[in-house]
From TrEMBL:
An individual GO BP term: carbohydrate metabolic process
Record carries keyword Iron-sulfur: no
Gene3D superfamilies from the UniProt entry: 3.10.50.10, Copper amine oxidase-like, N-terminal domain, Glycosidases, SH3 Domains
Keyword field: Hydrolase
Protein name listed in UniProt: Glycoside hydrolase
Alphabetical list of SMART domains matching this protein: Glyco_18
GO MF entries: chitin binding; hydrolase activity
PROSITE patterns: GH18_2
Recorded superkingdom: Bacteria
Domain spans labelled GH18: 250-569
Record-linked Pfam families: Cu_amine_oxidN1, Glyco_hydro_18
InterPro entries documented for this protein: Chitinase_II/V-like_cat, Chitinase_insertion_sf, Cu_amine_oxidase-like_N, GH, Glyco_hydro18_cat, Mao_N_sf
Gene source species: Thermoclostridium stercorarium subsp. leptospartum DSM 9219
Length: 594
């Protein structure tokens, strides 16, 4: 009997212990946490963008009913291209069709140079620049509101579709984490479950939970079983791609036209079918004040339009004065002065587009150059002009390559002209090609990582460098080159020296070597055969077209190739079937031996 009682007591103790242990385990790991806590442990105004809490050193400020955001916060999370000019105390915002300028502590602002009065100015608070974000909301396509009950500024993007849910019962809660053990940050007891106060924005989805934002701007988590999705919300439909001025059919063929001195020689040209756009070299920055040299010829525009060409006039900096370019790019007033001149000349001469050709820029001025292009482009578009910009090939370690933010420029302009030439530049001490086909193709592929194919114009050179090689007493060969030769000048030189061009498959060019006066001369010919190969890349990579330097180096045979490859060939396979082997098998009339 005593033994039975003992066993019973032992069992009772074990069961009680297990029950207590189970209760402890349940309370620790499974019992819902009923503690209600504040979502944000700060007295500062909190900024929430979509489903994220933005934590920065300088919080938003709400003053006189206006929501102010720090400049650095806007730059980091909303507009990476917003520009602050410390010297002028001026903020510049650029969109695809607007340039907005605001000076601190002034109610006067400018939109595309038209004055507008602000309700609240940009200002500095404790040395930090703050901007009235509600004024900028429509330009950024965002919705901005302030919840006074939670002291939260909420920003939503208008072109994002939001899933909207509501709690299924008053017992639903929003927690700080994806587990019932996390404390509660919002309850719905006593609330109308279909009211705006119960509205929940759903952002991320997990196995049993949603990441959500409440009406007050609290970021937390709710169980899927406690919420029902009732609608989808979008501020605006995604903006359609802006309709550009009517462009030529097929692939674009832009040709730069060197016009550094007055001439009417163009009037003697016949229409060349392989050209769509002429880009005369008319405008150039003259000095550090930003004054432009103007070589424009109204009769040229009339002649071009009569022959069916568009005119995208080139605007260049002074390649030889890197410091003056830096001064202009980093000075808001001087950038503005250059832009006003470009706009005036574009209107005066009835241009169809502008081609921006700034070269030899400090790599430290990369962002300043992008800002210049972003300030210019909306104003040109407002006048109905096409905007293009010239860039060098990527990947180099020199200033010529590192001064371009190709991705940002491509996002801004209509076309990017890739200058795929000067592979072996004029100052080289080793002779070589201006643009080997493999080198060109490799740089196209690199550039396509930053520039969309439909915006990329492939640069094609028509000039040939004549290289002179000499050997010293040790037999070391050194090369130097003189001026660049046109196609006709190179052919004349071949005939005069009884030279024989030899096809080089590596470069995709005919190579010429001849001896004269105890010196060796070499040329990698740019002509219709090299153009045939290079222009095929437009179809191979579905590029927008070509940009050719330059008209004065060409002959009639070249334009026939452009017309055939860009206008009469539909795709790369068609070109490969009909024209790929043309250079090696076709008749080459370059040698005096023929």
């Amino acid at each position: 009997m005593k033994k039975d009682i003992f066993i019973f007591i032992v069992i009772l103790i074990v069961v009680t212990g297990l029950a207590a242990g189970a209760a402890t385990f349940y309370n620790k790991y499974f019992k819902p946490n009923e503690v209600f806590v504040s979502c944000y442990d700060t007295a500062d105004t909190v900024l929430v963008i979509e489903g994220d809490v933005i934590s920065e050193n300088n919080p938003p400020v709400v003053r006189d009913g206006q929501i102010l955001l720090p400049f650095d916060t806007i730059k980091k999370y909303i507009d990476p291209y917003i520009w602050w000019d410390e010297a002028l105390q001026k903020v510049t915002v650029t969109t695809s069709d607007k340039v907005i300028k605001m000076e601190t502590d002034k109610l006067d602002a400018y939109i595309n140079n038209e004055p507008i009065e602000l309700k609240f100015p940009a200002t500095q608070i404790d040395g930090v620049v703050y901007l009235p974000i509600e004024f900028l909301a429509s330009f950024y396509k965002i919705n901005v509101r302030y919840s006074s009950s939670s002291n939260v500024v909420i920003i939503d993007r208008q072109d994002v579709i939001h899933r909207i849910g509501y709690p299924v019962s008053t017992g639903a809660v929003v927690r700080k984490g994806r587990n019932v053990r996390y404390p509660i940050i919002k309850k719905f007891e006593g609330m109308n479950l279909n009211s705006e106060d119960s509205k929940i924005y759903i952002f991320e989805e997990y196995d049993k939970w949603y990441k959500v934002r409440t009406a007050e701007g609290y970021i937390g988590y709710i169980r899927k079983e406690d919420i029902v999705i009732k609608s989808y919300e979008i501020g605006i439909m995604p903006e359609k791609i802006r309709e550009r001025p009517k462009l030529p059919e097929g692939k674009i063929s832009l040709v730069w036209d060197q016009m550094y001195s007055p001439t009417k020689a163009y009037l003697e040209r016949k229409r060349e079918e392989g050209i769509d756009v002429m880009s005369p070299t008319w405008f150039q920055v003259a000095n550090r004040d930003g004054e432009l040299i103007n070589r424009a010829d109204p009769q040229y525009v009339e002649w071009a339009h009569r022959n069916g060409y568009q005119v995208w006039a080139l605007v260049a900096n002074d390649f030889s004065n890197i410091d003056d370019t830096s001064e202009i790019l980093n000075n808001g007033l001087k950038r503005e002065y250059v832009i006003k001149q470009i706009l005036a000349f574009a209107a005066l001469y009835e241009l169809d587009g502008i081609n921006i050709d700034f070269e030899n820029i400090y790599k430290s001025d990369k962002d300043a150059f992008t800002q210049f292009v972003r300030e210019l482009t909306p104003l040109l578009r407002e006048q109905g002009l096409v905007v293009s910009v010239d860039v060098t090939v990527p990947g180099g370690s020199d200033t010529w390559s590192l001064c371009y933010d190709r991705k940002a420029l491509a996002e801004t302009v209509d076309y990017v002209c890739l200058m795929t030439y000067d592979q072996t530049w004029a100052g080289s001490r080793v002779a070589g090609s201006t643009a080997q086909i493999g080198w060109v193709e490799e740089n196209v592929k690199k550039t396509l990582k930053e520039v969309p194919a439909e915006k990329l114009l492939l640069g094609i050179p028509l000039y040939t460098r004549l290289w002179e090689e000499t050997a010293d007493e040790n037999g070391k060969i050194t090369a130097k080159t003189g001026k660049a030769l046109s196609i006709n000048a190179a052919e004349l030189l071949i005939r005069e020296n009884n030279a024989v061009p030899v096809w080089d498959s590596e470069s995709g060019q005919y190579v010429v070597t001849f001896e004269k006066d105890n010196k060796t001369y070499k040329m990698w010919l740019e002509n219709e055969y090299s153009v045939n190969l290079k222009s095929s890349l437009v179809h191979k990579y579905n590029l927008a077209g070509t940009a050719t330097w330059s008209h004065n180096f060409a002959n009639d045979s070249v334009w026939a190739v452009y017309d055939r490859n860009l206008k009469k060939t539909s795709h790369y396979e068609e070109w490969k079937s009909n024209f790929a082997s043309l250079a090696e098998t076709g008749k080459v009339e370059l040698s005096a031996a023929q």
